[in-house]
Design brief:
This protein is α/β, with parallel strands linked by helices and about 260 residues long. Helices cover about 45% and strands about 15% of the residues. It has 8 helices and 7 strands, in the order βαβαβαβαβαβαααβ. A 7-stranded parallel β-sheet has the order 3-2-1-4-5-6-7, with helices on both faces. Helix 1 crosses helix 8, helix 3 runs parallel beside helix 4 and helix 4 packs parallel to helix 5. It starts with 11 loop residues before the first strand and ends in a 6-residue tail after the last strand. One of its GO terms (molecular function) is oxidoreductase activity. Belongs to the short-chain dehydrogenases/reductases (SDR) family. It comes from Hoyosella altamirensis.
Length: about 260
């Protein structure tokens, strides 16, 4: 099967959680399609290495260390991106965390606040400052990373699922408000994807990879590149009439 390609020459992409997994795959795909890409991540060494790999191939990339729970850092990251590349045309707000499962009656307020700060507030802050620039331009496409957990519940992970449901609510509401301004806002809902986060879950005994694959209609885990492909499509002219959707990329799980 031939690979779908895009030409994003002259456009700028902004990707959070870009040092590994789905964020890295998306950043690489944007760069390979000709976009200038800001790779944004809390892990400075990893994100600098990721950007260096891209620039070493002659692609346009900028590493930005940023904690998405700090709105000032997010605002500065967006401003630095625009200063470096001149615009902000596409964004993938992917940064997120998952803590070990817990009985909801025993979850601490600290754990709740930590998950909400990264997964929900982080997406809020990134979207807010991306919108400021896109509103000024009169154009742009944003993709927020929700999850299969934004569409269904999950035993022991109520707060994680609450944040991922919340991202879909944010996405739909902002899509309604900004559609008339020429800005599209969508979400992707990945299923179980073979990322470092999933590897850590498997190592802790929280996930049986073979059993998880067997539950999916496609009988395998997803690949980060498959999420990146959905993100690029949602940011492309091919999705020019698509906004406010929560797109499952989950091997058929929610079917």
């Amino acid at each position: 099967m031939s690979e779908v390609t895009y030409d994003f020459t002259g456009k700028t992409a902004f990707v959070t959680g870009a040092s590994s997994g789905m964020g890295l795959a998306a950043a690489q795909a944007f760069a390979e399609a000709g976009a200038a890409v800001a790779l944004v991540d809390i892990n400075q060494e990893q994100v600098e290495n990721a950007a260096a790999e891209l620039t070493g191939r002659g692609l346009k990339a900028l590493a930005i260390q940023c904690d998405v729970t700090d709105e000032n850092q997010v605002a500065a990251a967006v401003a630095r991106t625009v200063e470096a590349f001149g615009s902000l045309d596409m964004a993938f707000n992917n940064a997120g965390i998952m803590l070990p499962p817990v009985d909801s009656a025993d979850e601490t307020a600290e754990a709740f606040d930590t998950i909400v700060a990264v997964n929900l507030r982080g997406v809020w802050a990134a979207t807010k400052h991306e919108l400021k620039q896109m509103r000024a331009q009169g154009s742009g496409a944003i993709v927020n990373c929700s999850s299969l957990g934004g569409l269904v519940g999950g035993d022991g992970r109520a707060t994680y699922h609450a944040t991922k449901h919340g991202i879909i609510g944010q996405t739909k509401s902002i899509a309604l408000q900004y559609g008339p301004l020429g800005i599209r806002v969508n979400a992707v809902c990945p299923g179980t994807i073979d990322t470092p986060m999933v590897a850590q879950m498997a190592a802790r005994g929280e996930l049986d990879r073979e059993a998880a694959a067997a539950r999916e209609p496609l009988r395998r885990l997803g690949r980060p590149e498959e999420i990146a492909a959905a993100v690029l499509w949602l940011c492309s002219d091919g999705a020019s009439y698509v906004t406010g959707v929560a797109l499952p990329v989950d091997g058929g799980h929610v079917a």
